[in-house]
Amino acid sequence: MPQGKLASWLVYPGRDTPLAIRAALVSTLFGTLPIFLGGVFNTIAVAAALAYRHPSPLFLFWLFSEIAVCLARLVLLVLSHRRAEQGKPTPTDLYILLAPLWGATVGYGALISATSGDWVAATLSFLSAAAMVGGICFRNFAAPRLVAIMIFLSLGPCCIGAVLSGEPVLLLTLVQIPFYLFAMSVAAKKLNVMLISTMEAERENDRRARHDGLTGLLNRAGLFHAVTYELSEATHKGAGAPVFYLDLDGFKAVNDAYGHECGDKLLIQVAARLRHLAGPNALVARMGGDEFVIVDQPPYAAEPRAFANSVIAEIEKPFHLTDDVTVRIGASIGIATVTGDGSAIDTVLESADVAMYEAKRNKKKRELAT
């Protein structure tokens, strides 16, 4: 994400959006190399042709400016892609701020061409500026403000050149270009809104696919994804991440005695207690029914057995389901470890599940013995 105020203002999507979506929108501004090179070829080729036709300081300055800005943006584009692949910060601010400068060089070329008295130069530079606008809108609509500024800087000088040229027919651009600027800016804005709405819908669908609808915890698919992608680096850096497989003791009796509504309330309250105990760095999931999993993250993992005992103690406290219904249940927990040696999460969960049922059997034996 850009850090400076100006670059941040230029890429503001027009409404408050989650940071992840804003970052994805900014990433689209970097685009692909073939699209970028197409615009570079257009602007430099036109500037070079007209500098050859008019080897004056004004046209030579235009050519060198085009080359300098395009070369700088190309270097930053390649550098940004490489650093992004490495997970390192990218020169986003500088790359974004060079975009309006590129538009300004195109507009400068149109201005000096219109005032040169050369109809060929004026036609070619105006066509180049108009061609740039399509690419600007198509490539940058994730940032509507940036689109509007770039179009203004590219086509605005055409209006000034038309006035200074002394050619009455060129004054038609004073009507054409403002409408064109308005139409393309509105189009970019609408495309931006559609893109954000699509991304938000995709995020919501993804969230629903990976979260339990009742408790809001991760579901099995969400847990597998999180362990695979979120814990991989942590488990390589430190000790293995402990996995706690928890099954509620006495849940079925509550569900049968008081109905599914009370059963659901009980599961929701259990989930809330587990989230609170596990803390922000742990993964908490409902595997289905009354089974839950907690995966702690190293190096912040508590001593596994002590943590398991604290979870059991918390679950054994009373649950107030309605004004008239207060219940007590228990929990059995099995412990396994996710390591950085490629251990599959399903294998680890199976080990924790086996340990959990062993703990449940031992508890029943103790109860029978007493």
UniProtKB/TrEMBL annotation:
Transmembrane segments: 21-52, 58-80, 92-113, 119-138, 145-164, 170-188
GGDEF domain boundaries: 239-370
Signal peptide positions on this chain: none
Keyword Transmembrane: yes
Keyword Transferase listed: yes
Known EC number: 2.7.7.65
An annotated Gene Ontology molecular function: diguanylate cyclase activity
Keyword terms, alphabetized: Membrane, Nucleotidyltransferase, Transferase, Transmembrane, Transmembrane helix
CDD domains named in the record: GGDEF
Coiled-coil stretches noted in the UniProt entry, renumbered to this chain: none
Cross-referenced InterPro entries: Biofilm_reg_signaling, GGDEF_dom, Nucleotide_cyclase, Rev_trsase/Diguanyl_cyclase
The protein's name in its UniProt record: Diguanylate cyclase
Lineage: Bacteria, Pseudomonadati, Pseudomonadota, Betaproteobacteria, Burkholderiales
